Description:
15 helices, 20% strand, globular, Aldehyde Dehydrogenase, Chain A, domain 1, Aldehyde Dehydrogenase, Chain A, domain 2, 462 residues
Amino acid sequence: MKAHDGLYIDGAWRPATGRDVIEVVNPADEQVIGRVPAGDALDVDTAARAARAALAAWAATPPAERAARLTALRDVLVARKDEIAETVTAELGSPPQFSQAVHASVPIAVAGSYAELAATHSFEEKVGNSTVLHEPVGVVGAITPWNYPLHQIVAKVAPALAAGCTVVLKPAEDTPLTAQLFAEAVHEAGVPAGVFNLVTGLGPVAGQALAEHPDVDLVSFTGSTAVGRRIGAVAGAAVKKVALELGGKSANVILPGADLAKAVGVGVANVMSNSGQTCSAWTRMLVHRDQYDEAVELAAAAAAKYGDRIGPVVNAKQQARVLGYIEKGVAEGARLVAGGPESPREQGYFVSPTVLADVTPEMTIAQEEIFGPVLSLLRYEDEEDALRIANGTVYGLAGAVWAGEESEAVAFARRMDTGQVDINGGRFNPLAPFGGYKQSGVGRELGSHGLAEYLQTKSLQF
Ligand code: NAD
């Protein structure tokens, strides 16, 4: 695993101003696998200036040429897929197969989708006697989390480059090696110097400096609601544009006519995948009281089957946090039917796949984001009750509805306060807008809606 000891700024790897480093730890065995520079405000300033200097030329580059660079980027990601998967496994702990199938593959699809959109999108339209130009917003400060290290980066950088924006990226402290690999890929793809810049560093230092920097026109942040709130305030004070992809507490609603075994099986798999570190995971399963006991048994059996196949959570702090939530759930009256608050291994930050039954809507574990392999099962009386419970948190990122008839599931989904709903196990669509209602965020990522976040309009009247 290669770790650069510099920051990627203005087309080259350069030493950071200070000497501080971030140690990258493999969460499966707690070994240090690399060190990267902890950039500071001065480094962010250098990167933001480089992005500003590169903006005019990149914004004026014909969309077809921007599309060609994105196609080249996609091709590099394809060629380096194995290396990407190995790097994500090493720094996030994700099982190799999942790293290949999701962590390495989804960004390829997303980069490819933006190569196509850059080539086909209308950056100009006619509205009556006006011509409306869709122009790049400017310099983007992108701040990303560790849970899907490459996807979170590509979901911001690819649409930004497609739109004609330039970027400074501050990736998560836990997964900087994937970000460095991405910077290498951008370089190999022939993206001009200064268009993409990478500053690894700590959130409250480099992240904050990036959000505050006067050369940054748009702050695009994915992460916790707590940090998102601060970034929104910083951006608001400076009247910068801001996009926030935050937390979730999504409901998986199983209506009485649904295929119960399938709905529970897919629901458990959804929560356990990536060790529960998915912001859109359906962490609350809502089951009608007549089917509740059967669902509990099915969920407990499905979770127990995961056993050793699940990876660790990302670090010791997350492990302690997740185990603490399990303890809190039990203390507030939930019934443990699989897993538990003990770490299953001596080494590595593992958490057993856990299912808690008899969870009620006001319990902490039914309201707060846990971000670990922990599923709560809630009982509902009728559809109105299910809807009240489903909508009864501050979040609104995703969800699922299962019913005998698709139309019944759709009717329920229309009433949910959430940005995405999977109907009877619908598949992930990398072109569908992704983002939150309520405190799950501001703005949308992916597809043409994601591209629109990086564009602003100018109207010419004739
Ligand atoms: P986090 O908010 O702690 O960190 C996210 C990023 O923000 C990191 O790069 C971090 O260094 C940076 N940061 C931290 N403090 C900062 C500050 N004061 N100023 C600027 N930047 C700062 O979140 P996390 O622990 O890395 O990620 C987990 C959270 O992310 C979960 O709550 C999860 O739901 C959320 N998430 C949301 C989505 C989504 O699309 N809605 C996707 C993934 C993760």
